[in-house]
Amino acid sequence: RHTQDASAEADPRVWRVDLIDLFPSASVTASAPDTSGLDAHLGLAMAGGVERAALFAHPPVRGECVVTLRLAVPAHAGNLRLRFGYGIRDGAGIADDNLVAFRVRVNGYRVWSAHTNARRWEEADIALPAEAGSVAAIEFRTEALGDHRYTWAAWAQPRVIGAPAV
């Protein structure tokens, strides 16, 4: 995990998309047949006292909450990066021995994962394995590793950026 200079996102030659804007057409499912406890929606989330626009993704009692966003990658975009924050929202009564798994899949392949119970934002910046001119199915997955009750998982400001393809 590493973070690149934020000034790249301000460069007018850089293609960028806020994935929160794609949520209205997202697919929200559970990886198991029972969806009890599953909740996925948009809002402002506070973690570590910092408020950010976020995708709330509370996992079901068993299995994963899966939010799939389909992103059309323009033919001119290259060097794609997926950037986001992730964490447990403030006020969650999650136990010290309880974790939440955060996973990202692109076109069915796991490209990133982390486990945490920290009530603060952590940052991720990963290469997005999608070709220019394609449609990428990006899945944000959360799973309770233990009691699911206070797994108030959130993905903060997920976005994709790409420099012009050469």
Attribute tags:
166 residues, mainly beta
Q: Termini separation (Å)?
A: 25 Å
Output the helix-strand order. Answer: HEEEEEEEEEEE
- Major beta-sheet overview: 6 strands, antiparallel
Tell me roughly what share of residues is in helical segments.
under 10%
Question: What structural class results from the helix and strand content?
Answer: mainly beta
How would you sum up the global shape?
A: globular
Rg from alpha-carbon coordinates: 16 Å
Low-confidence stretches: 1-5
Strand content: over 45%
Task: Work out the helix count.
Answer: 1
Strand tally: 11
Average predicted local confidence, pLDDT: 90
Structure characterization notes:
- The chain has 166 residues and is an all-beta fold.
- It is built from one helix and eleven strands, in the order H-E-E-E-E-E-E-E-E-E-E-E.
- The protein has one helix at 7-10; strands at 15-18, 27-30, 39-47, 50-58, 64-72, 77-88, 99-106, 109-116, 122-127, 135-145, 153-164.
- The strands form two sheets. Strands 1, 3, 4, 6, 9 and 11 form a six-stranded antiparallel beta sheet that branches.
- A hairpin with a 2-residue loop joins strand 7 (99-106) and strand 8.
- The chain is globular, with a radius of gyration of 16 Å.
- The chain starts with 6 loop residues before the first helix and ends with a strand.
